[in-house]
Amino acid sequence: MHLFGWGKNKDTADFSFRVDDVFHIKGHGVVVTGQVTAGKVRKGVRVTCVKADGTSFPCLIQKIEQPDPSVRGQFVHPDYASADGPFQGSYAFWIADRQPSEFHSGDRLIAGENA
User: Each residue of 93-102: b (16+ CB within 10 Å) or e?
Assistant: First the structure.
């Protein structure tokens, strides 16, 4: 029992991301795009991908990318992604050590490696 929330990452506890598109960038790996629908997450965190059929697997958010709100056509790489971020929480996550075929539109990334 954690009386004061110790042992639980408050930053990612309620994190949820809806996958809209998936692609592969040669030399860089898998990128999933979509929207953070709840909470926030930082780069370097392991999350769980929950598929439409209910199966799941862990994955690592290696890098976060989003359009630069101040310069049209440019991108920034913030340390955090959040539901209340610019562009209604739209982000691209670079996922380490996975294949594009493992992700599909409608999948969800949620907090925790074994969520």
Answer: bbbeebeeee
3-state helix, strand, coil in the chain (%, to 5): 5, 50, 45
**Distance between CA atoms of residues 53 and 49, nearest Å:** 11
pLDDT surpassing 80 at residue 5 = no
Tally of residues, the chain: 115
Confidence category of residue 28, pLDDT binned at 50, 70, 90: confident
Query: Cα separation of 104 and 22, whole Å?
Result: 7
Domains of the chain: 16-111 (2.40.30.10)
Place of tokens 């929330």: 5
Top-confidence residue, 86 or 23: 23
Chain-centroid distance of CA 10 in Å reads 16
Distance CA 57, CA 78 (A): 25
